[in-house]
Amino acid sequence: MEPRAPGATSEVGRLRTVVLHRPGAELRRLTPRNTDQLLFDGVPWVARAQEEHDAFAAALADRGVEVLHLDRLLADVLDGPEAREELIAAAVDDPRLGATLRRAAVAHLSGLAPADLAATLIAGLAHDELRGGSGLAYRLMDRGDFVVPPLPNLLFTRDSSVWVGDQVAVASLAMPARHRESTITRAVVTHHPRFTGVEQLYDASLEHLEGGDVLLLAPGVLAVGVGERTTPGGAERLARRVFARGLAHTVLVVPIAQQRATMHLDTIATMVDVDAMVMYPAVAGSLVAWTVTADTPPDDDDTTDLVVRGPAPFLAAAAAAMGIDRLRVIDTGLDPVTAEREQWDDGNNTLALAPRLAVAYERNTVTNAALEAAGIEVVRIAGSELGSGRGGPRCMSCPVVRDPLP
Ligand SMILES: NC(=O)NCCC[C@H](N)C(=O)O
């Protein structure tokens, strides 16, 4: 059967196709010395993280979701000269290297077969793995230093690209440790036959915008978190572009605390039904939104002012934009300490497979019980090791095809 044309207009339409990344050798690079810089909160047990991820992928496949693996898509495109050239250039685009080491790194990477090159671009290249290294920068490096740093956060496929309607926004990731991820998603959506003809809505050279901050609340209505990662400038640019291309009529811009626990909007709230969210109780009453619309559709990047109203309470502003009476918040009934613990462990970061059917980490027992009491079927997955990167089922998945809502 022909694959369905890619696209998504909501968070909860039946999920048909998703991109995941099974974590691999890149996680073995993590040590207590580099976890902060590489945005992990601990050193994961890699084999167990892979088992957990395999079970996540199996849970999706068992429910009829086609799982695409990012490393395989990457290896496919690295069979062609354009993606090879672009991604090798991106891997050595680092002022630490200097010309001599850069040349040696290019020669090494250029000699690799597609699957090996894909693996190396993801796992990185350590000093002692480089054949034929030379030059001052090389000689002054330590054995374990990275010529090409690893990408352990590629696991969180949600952040480096996001589909809005039938177009894909390649993200502009804020943290240096994640910049190169966008070059990989860009190469895949540009060169893979699966995505031929797809228009790109955003790119990594623009203001910071991360997929974890973008929620498709309803067809035509986006919520965009602005905080540690996505900037107001990024939200404005995205709004202009989705209006210009007829992909949305309203963008709700939602300020969130600029701290690690709430790095993206999807760490505090995700949709579990067409009119319901699970939300961190500590923010449910105080979250606000700026409602952005356009009187006349702008051009992609013109400078005409958008219409900005607010701030207003998020739930009311969202319901008004979505054209519903009320956006329900599933009351997790949590005491503040349990709520804080389960938010940190991504209890609010669920992946909807369909209305009222969501994947969640099993460890968040109180949040999951509340979801079930509210009529949401919860598919529980283990995440004790996966969670050390601070991301849950939504962060670890990029929906590529969802059914439109009826
Ligand atoms: N959407 C998400 O919240 N993604 C989780 C990203 C975790 C990753 N370690 C990061 O800090 O960017």
UniProtKB/TrEMBL annotation:
It catalyses: L-arginine + H2O = L-citrulline + NH4(+). Signal peptide: none annotated. Its EC number is 3.5.3.6. It comes from the Bacteria. GO terms for molecular function: arginine deiminase activity. Pathway: Amino-acid degradation; L-arginine degradation via ADI pathway; carbamoyl phosphate from L-arginine: step 1/2. Gene3D superfamilies: Arginine deiminase, L-arginine/glycine Amidinotransferase, Chain A. Keywords: Arginine metabolism, Cytoplasm, Hydrolase. Belongs to the arginine deiminase family. HAMAP family: Arg_deiminase. This is Arginine deiminase.
